Amino acid sequence: MCLAAPSRVLEVRDSMAVTECFGQVREVSLLLMDEDICVGDYLLIQAGGFAFERVEAERAEQALALMREFMEQDNAAREWGIAA
Prior knowledge:
The chain is of the alpha+beta class. The chain has 2 helices and 5 strands. It is about 25% helix and about 35% strand. The protein is elongated and about 45 Å long.
């Protein structure tokens, strides 16, 4: 299973974008995108570094808030699905 956290676009250069998510800044390819991408947009990015979907800002910020809340919980809360 793969989980993609929305990454905010900081800069757009040709077919590449510089994005940030939870303090991680990276350059990603926009070759799979069929729409114009602007600074401030949120993108979902595949493990190989290709953006594949633009996400509405409100939805992206809600998802990031939930992820942040989950990451701040103790380890026991993350072990759901693991038999004791």
